[in-house]
């Protein structure tokens, strides 16, 4: 199929695109946030084509786009006074509201949910297209799975050429990241995805707001920018990073003072280049100028300025373009400037932390250290080997996180087994002789970001013992498979207990554990 790019809204092609979407085909169209890949929301076959073109399973609900407020009512069960206020204040614009759905909306659109997300984009071409099409249009961002959302028609063409008949070109998107998603089914609005319409904006209208970014006026922790309860995370917290993962590693230059941000950027660039890798920089004019003045060989660095220092709006608008360009330029490590997590800084940090993959924080220049807790039965072989290997590698790659270990069936202060000590020494020159076993406790689990068991049985026992933390438990194999690039089944294998076998078996087990940890750390 040949993909036609439409640049003139008065051309015959524009009207062909309108009739094409009415007939069940896909049309990519611009909005002020990102480009959308639209299909008739009332036609299940048409909606199924979206998932085919994007190359992703239909596990994430889609946003339904309409041109005018009157078109909302038939699609939803009811519009509460709160929802009405938000509609009147922010639509059309970069916001999506989640309502209880009416029977008109097929379940393929909502991924089986009883709620539906509705958006009225303000972009003039989106308005014109939706108005003429005169149907509700289901549209995710117009990118293939695994790449950032598209903010120019060129990006859409790169991702979907040959798969869809029409792309309407509306120039670069002014907002540049996806809309703020707000659940309005309850008493107070809940922000599910942060965007250009911020918690502060919404609070002014509704008096109260919860969800991502609602509680971070004085708190700029990374956690606040990536609340885990977003609908982007249908299965488990780690899963969502796949959707955003750029090829390059992302590190943040996170400091209040410009000179410190320059210094962090320079340090990372130096380190990257001395590893023989190519560095990319996404930052303001001044940082870029400082780094360019350093005279690095041109083929080792690629710079992308978003504009003036502190212009968060521009940094947000150009972020996805920059990430795509960094991949095209085959950059290995991107240093991106961090922003304070407030206002639209929440949306910026949310997207960049997702792109970086914060769970191990392997890529993030960290302020706060996250702990990973490895657990086995005795805490004398498998989990101490995992802890020691993880800590050795985490230091080497500046991961900003560290490991601890515990046993589910042990007593305190046992040394590591002799074979484990030998195996770690021989394989990795790591000294386990100082290890002392400890029993798992609620506090150890509470303080850990993630708890990795050696076997599925241990995982399920921990889930039972600490149900309040059930989202923290994975097996090491399963957790590592979340970080592999391939969209394959989770690895549900166990790491068996080598207790009582010879050193060779211990080495084999140590090697397997190390392999998983390398994947988790992105090595
Ligand atoms: O700016 C945007 O929102 C763009 C443009 C094209 O409108 N669209 C977009 O769509 O970003 P997509 O599919 O990439 O993201 C849709 C988001 C997901 O986070 C999804 O989980 C959430 O909206 N969503 C959709 N329906 C929902 C529902 N019923 N309940 C909760 N969240 C929902
Ligand atoms: Mg998307």
Molecular structure report:
The protein is an alpha/beta fold and 523 residues long. Helices cover 37% and strands 16% of the residues. The chain contains 19 helices and 19 strands. Strands 1-8-2-3-7-4-6-5-9-10-11 form an eleven-stranded mixed beta sheet, with helices on both faces. Strands 12-15-13-14 form a four-stranded parallel beta sheet, sandwiched between helices. A four-stranded parallel beta sheet has the order 17-16-18-19, sandwiched between helices. Strand 9 and strand 10 form a beta hairpin. Helix 1 packs across helix 5 and helix 15 packs across helix 19. The longest helix is centred in the C-terminal third of the chain and has 18 residues. The chain is globular, with a radius of gyration of 25 Å. The protein starts with a strand and ends with a helix. Threonylcarbamoyladenylate binds next to strand 5, strand 6 and strand 10.
Shape: globular
- Percentage beta strand: 15-25%
For the largest sheet, list the strands in their spatial order: 1-8-2-3-7-4-6-5-9-10-11
How many angstroms separate the termini?
A: 40 Å
* Rg on CA atoms, Å: 25 Å
* Structure ligands: threonylcarbamoyladenylate, magnesium ion
- Going by helix content, strand content and strand pairing, the class is alpha/beta
User: Can you tell me the residue ranges where pLDDT is under 50 for at least 5 consecutive residues?
Assistant: 228-243, 359-368
Biggest sheet character:
11 strands, mixed
Q: What share of residues is helical?
A: 25-40%
Number of helical elements? 19
Number of strands: 19
Average pLDDT score: 90
């Amino acid at each position: 199929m040949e993909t036609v790019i439409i640049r003139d809204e008065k051309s015959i092609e524009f009207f062909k695109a309108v009739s094409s979407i009415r007939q069940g085909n896909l049309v990519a169209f611009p909005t002020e946030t990102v480009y959308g890949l639209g299909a008739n929301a009332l036609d299940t076959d048409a909606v199924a084509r979206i998932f085919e073109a994007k190359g992703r399973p239909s596990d994430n609900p889609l946003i339904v786009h309409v041109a005018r407020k009157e078109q909302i009512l038939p699609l939803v069960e009811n519009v509460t006074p709160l929802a009405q206020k938000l509609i009147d204040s922010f639509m059309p614009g970069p916001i999506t509201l989640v309502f209880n759905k009416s029977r008109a909306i097929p379940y393929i659109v909502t991924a089986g949910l009883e709620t539906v997300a509705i958006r009225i984009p303000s972009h003039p071409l989106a308005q014109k297209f939706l108005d003429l099409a005169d149907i509700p249009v289901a549209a995710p961002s117009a990118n293939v799975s695994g790449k950032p959302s598209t903010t120019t028609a060129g990006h859409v063409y790169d991702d979907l050429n040959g798969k869809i008949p029409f792309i309407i070109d509306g120039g670069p998107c002014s907002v540049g990241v996806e809309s703020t998603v707000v659940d309005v089914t309850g008493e107070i609005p809940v922000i599910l995805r942060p965007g250009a319409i911020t918690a502060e904006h919404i609070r002014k209208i509704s008096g109260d707001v919860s969800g991502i970014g609602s509680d971070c006026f004085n708190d700029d922790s990374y956690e606040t920018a990536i609340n885990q309860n977003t609908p982007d995370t249908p299965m488990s917290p780690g899963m969502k990073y796949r959707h955003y993962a750029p090829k390059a590693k992302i590190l943040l230059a996170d400091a209040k003072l410009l000179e410190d941000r320059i210094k962090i950027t320079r340090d990372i660039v130096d380190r990257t280049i001395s590893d023989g890798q190519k560095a990319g920089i996404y930052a303001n004019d001044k940082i870029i100028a400082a780094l360019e003045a350093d005279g690095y060989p041109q083929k080792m660095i690629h710079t992308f300025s978003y504009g003036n220092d502190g212009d968060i709006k521009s940094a947000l608008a150009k972020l996805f373009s920059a990430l795509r360009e960094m991949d095209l330029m085959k950059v290995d490590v991107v240093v991106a400037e961090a922003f304070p997590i407030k206002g639209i800084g929440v949306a910026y940090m949310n997207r960049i932390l997702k792109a970086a993959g914060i769970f191990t924080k392997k890529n993030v220049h960290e302020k706060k250290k996250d702990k990973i807790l490895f657990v086995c039965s005795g805490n004398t072989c498998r989990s101490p080997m995992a802890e020691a290997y993880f800590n050795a590698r985490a230091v080497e790659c500046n991961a900003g996180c560290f490991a601890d270990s515990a046993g589910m069936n042990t007593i305190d202060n046992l040394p590591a087994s002799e074979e484990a000590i030998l195996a770690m020494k021989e394989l990795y020159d790591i000294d386990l002789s100082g290890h002392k076993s400890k029993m798992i406790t609620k506090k150890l689990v509470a303080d850990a970001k993630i708890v990795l068991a050696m076997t599925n049985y241990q995982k399920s026992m921990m889930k039972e013992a600490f149900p309040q933390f059930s989202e923290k438990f994975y097996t090491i194999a399963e957790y590592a498979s979340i970080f592999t690039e391939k969209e394959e089944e989770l690895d549900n294998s166990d790491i068996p207990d080598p207790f009582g076998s010879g050193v060779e078996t211990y080495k084999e087990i140590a090697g397997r554990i190390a392999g998983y940890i390398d994947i988790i750390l992105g090595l």
